[in-house]
Automatic annotation (TrEMBL):
This is Transposase IS701-like DDE domain-containing protein. It comes from Methanosalsum natronophilum. Residues 25-111 form the Transposase IS701-like DDE domain. The lineage of its organism: Archaea, Methanobacteriati, Methanobacteriota, Stenosarchaea group, Methanomicrobia. Pfam families: DDE_5. It comes from the Archaea.
Length: 118
């Protein structure tokens, strides 16, 4: 059973606003992450964590991406730089990096890009 939530309505609005027709049977929402190695300790979201691109735990930054795919077409709906819990719990670090207070709330990777406008 599929429950149509406020998030579903928001996604449908974003998708149809870009000229796509949505049907449950033909389209799929995809949320994925991409880790990138980072050497600069002052990069926002920088943390020692597992990075699939490197195949090991190392210093990296993660982006989280939401897309809609239907047949051979793909549409990027949203993206966000992921902030690990270690960053969110250190408000001085977030303030120094210029992260707005309203973004200093921890969200897991699957939720990180859902409510962030492009």
């Amino acid at each position: 059973m599929h429950f149509y939530t406020a998030i579903d309505r928001e996604l449908t609005t974003r998708i149809t606003a870009r000229g796509w027709r949505t049907t449950v049977k033909k389209g799929v929402q995809v949320i994925d992450e991409c880790g990138n190695p980072k050497a600069a300790k002052h990069s926002i979201g920088f943390n020692r964590q597992y990075c699939g691109n490197m195949g090991k735990v190392d210093n990296c930054q993660f982006g989280v991406f939401m897309a809609y795919t239907k047949s051979e077409r793909r549409l990027l709906l949203n993206y966000r730089l992921y902030l690990p819990a270690e960053w969110i719990t250190d408000s001085a670090r977030c303030d120094a990096a210029g992260i707005l207070k309203e973004h200093q709330i921890f969200k897991n990777k699957s939720r990180a890009c859902i409510r962030n406008d492009l």
